[in-house]
Amino acid sequence: MLTKYNSSAIIFHLVQGLMIVFLLVTGTFVLSEIPNTIEKFGSFKIHMILGLIVLVLTIIRIINIGKHPKLEPLKVSSFREKLIKFNHIAIYVVLTLVGLSGILLSKGSGIGEMIFFGMDGEIYNSFKDYNMGIAHGILTKVLLFLIAMHIVGVFSYRLKTKENILSRMWFTKK
Ligand code: HEM
Questions:
Q1: 156 belongs to a structural domain
Q2: Protein residue with its CA nearest to atom 41 in ligand 1
């Protein structure tokens, strides 16, 4: 049975992880803090392009999961095994919903057409004026919680078993 992920899964995990952290941090502490003026368009554009790439990568990853043989199971209780499964599925589901709500928010507010196609329109005051904007914000907090749960799980497994579980998702020799 396989003891570590293959290179393509490792690259996907690394690239997506970095992009998601960037989007969560800059979305929360930069984007939603700047007033909505034309000067914000550049930051909006970067956020939307990266968000779309993350969404596409997530969909590709979901399609690919079923195609690869399963890894050797971890030495955990059946409860923890269920929790790990829940965490992994929830991350993919919530990530897809974050991406889709972002698209619907930029479509509903017209900001997408203004930024990408140069259309005229009124720039919205706050993304919280739109249900999709509120949904996008809440979903990003849920995603943050799931990612924190994911990281705590990895380190608590390492503390408990003294096994470097991170090596399953890194470019180390078998
Ligand atoms: C899939 C990964 C994505 C992540 C992790 C993410 C993360 C975030 C975060 C953390 C915020 C701030 C929310 C708040 O402060 O409550 C935000 C706002 C926003 N996001 Fe995303 N986003 C993603 C994808 C997208 C996509 C695909 C689009 C559109 C194509 C988009 C459009 C927006 C817009 C328009 C805002 C509002 C910004 C503002 O008005 O201040 N996002 N996003």
A1: yes
A2: 32
CB atoms within 10 A of CB 99: 22
Q: Does ligand 1 lie within 6 Å of residue 111's CB atom?
A: yes
> Residues 21-78: pLDDT tens digits?
999 999 999 998 888 888 889 999 999 999 999 999 999 999 988 887 888 889 899 9
Q: Which of 10, 139, 143, 2 is nearest to 64 (CA)?
A: 10
Q: Has residue 17 been placed in a domain? A: yes
Which protein residue's CA is at the shortest distance from atom 14 of ligand 1? 137
Q: Is 104 in the pocket of ligand 1 (CB under 6 A)?
A: no
Alpha carbons 4 and 169: distance in angstroms, whole number:
6
Instruction: With respect to residue 85, please indicate whether it lies within any of the assigned structural domains.
Output: yes
Predicted TM-score of the model (pTM): 0.93
Contact between 132 and 103 (Cβ < 8 Å): no
Using CA atoms, how far apart are residues 108 and 8, in angstroms rounded to an integer? 36
Structural domain of 104 = 7-68+76-169
Tally of structural domains, the chain: 1
The finding on whether 99 has its CB within 6 A of some atom of ligand 1 is yes
**1 Cα to the center of ligand 1, angstroms:** 40
In the reported structure, the alpha carbon of residue 43 is separated from the centroid of ligand 1 by a whole-number distance in angstroms of 11
Atom 3 of ligand 1 has which residue's CA nearest to it?
Answer: 51
**Is 143 domain-assigned?**
yes
